[in-house]
Design goal:
By secondary structure, this protein is of the alpha/beta class. Helix content is 21%, strand content 24%. A nine-stranded mixed sheet has the order 1-9-8-7-6-4-5-3-2, sandwiched between helices. The longest helix is centred in the middle third of the chain and has 15 residues. It is globular, with a radius of gyration of 17 Å.
Length: 263
């Protein structure tokens, strides 16, 4: 059954999002394919994890940990990773693999190498916790979720600000993945007034309908937030849930914890 919830956040037109205070984090690097490695940031909850999540940022997918200065992105999920951990989620913010640092993941999210890399991350997570594991993507990161959630051993999928329309240069959308393979619970999170031309809010219903074999599908539609301080397809706008990060993460995590058995 598909259910729709509309959540209204108070408008704060003259305020920026509050700065998120990060607790102690650590970076891990593991082998994936031969000499190739992948790095990620681990943000742990203070108590035993209630669930685990791999976060996929949008765009090129580069968190750029190899530069030695921590995550370098204003992406919604990257900047909100502590909010997930604060709510009991063992959070892994994944970078591109070492052989993708130049190209990024623009044209590789549907490939076998990406699948092998994330499979290696999943195996590592399973050495840390046996909590239900979710794939969480935003914007172009939802392509990773769409292609991997039906193949890899995970317990749920979250699509936020999903990529519904392609461009001449990069035509791929979530619908190019075999969504019929996704059988775990799936949550679709979107801003009603997302003005990015490739993530229009009217695409939410089609995605929900396309997840026909998922154990459960629900949609969370948000409104409000801060006035944009970036272009519509960038992170500091409605596309990135600017100003309502806590509301979005809180609702997302509550749904994950309520539906995290993968059944």
């Amino acid at each position: 059954m598909i259910r729709i919830f509309c959540m209204l956040a108070a408008l704060m037109p003259f305020m920026l999002s509050p700065e998120i205070v990060f607790s102690a984090e650590r970076e891990e690097t593991i082998p994936t394919r031969g000499d190739v490695t992948i790095s990620f940031v681990v943000t742990e909850p203070s108590d035993k994890p209630k669930a685990a999540a791999i976060l996929f940022m949008g765009g090129h997918g580069k968190v750029s940990l190899w530069r030695g200065k921590g995550p370098r992105s204003s992406n919604f999920l990257v900047r909100s990773r502590q909010l997930f951990a604060d709510r009991g989620i063992f959070t892994v913010t994944v970078d591109v693999a070492s052989d993708q640092r130049q190209s990024g993941l623009y044209d590789l999210r549907d490939g076998g190498d990406h699948r092998k890399d994330i499979a290696a991350v999943i195996r590592w997570i399973r050495t840390q916790t046996d909590a239900p594991l979710w794939l969480v993507g935003t914007s172009r990161g939802t392509l990773s979720v769409a292609h991997l959630a039906g193949i890899l051993p995970v317990d749920g999928a979250v699509f936020s600000a999903s990529l519904f329309k392609g461009t001449g240069r990069r035509p791929e959308t979530v619908h190019d993945a075999d969504l019929d393979r996704i059988r775990v619970p799936a949550l679709i999170v979107h801003h009603k007034f997302d003005e990015c031309h490739v993530t229009p809010a009217y695409g939410v219903s089609r995605l929900a309908s396309s997840l026909r074999n998922a154990a459960k599908v629900e949609m969370l539609m948000f409104e409000g937030g801060d006035d944009p301080i970036s272009k519509p397809c960038q992170a500091r706008a409605a596309h990135g849930f600017l100003g309502i990060e806590e509301k979005v993460v809180d609702a997302t995590v509550r749904w994950m914890l309520a539906n995290g058995s993968g059944k």
